[in-house]
């Protein structure tokens, strides 16, 4: 029978970013089964989240263009350019 120190198990769960379950196959097989199923569900959830497309955040210029298209804007010749500041 293999025993693993609780501290080692918790440290590994932090290292791999997963849940830690303290169970004993000798004392309670159902606990091992539930822990295994929970870990599988967690792994599947992470896998599905990684498969989702990444949504890009709109920058200030993009938002400005969208608002300009929605509310209309004057022709470019009629608009006065404002000074801009690049940081």
Automatic annotation (TrEMBL):
UniProt EC number: 3.6.5.2
The reaction(s) this protein catalyses: GTP + H2O = GDP + phosphate + H(+)
The organism's taxonomic lineage, starting at the top: Eukaryota, Metazoa, Ecdysozoa, Arthropoda, Hexapoda
Protein's name according to its UniProt entry: small monomeric GTPase
Keyword Hydrolase: yes
Taxonomic source organism: Molorchus minor
Keywords: Hydrolase
């Amino acid at each position: 029978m293999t025993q693993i120190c609780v501290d080692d198990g918790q440290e590994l769960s932090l290292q791999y970013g997963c849940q830690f379950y303290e169970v004993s196959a000798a004392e309670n097989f159902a606990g091992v089964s539930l822990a295994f199923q929970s870990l599988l569900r967690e792994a599947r959830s992470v896998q599905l989240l990684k498969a989702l497309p990444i949504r890009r955040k709109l920058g200030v210029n993009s938002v400005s263009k969208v608002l300009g298209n929605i509310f209309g804007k004057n022709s470019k010749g009629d608009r006065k350019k404002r000074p801009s500041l690049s940081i």
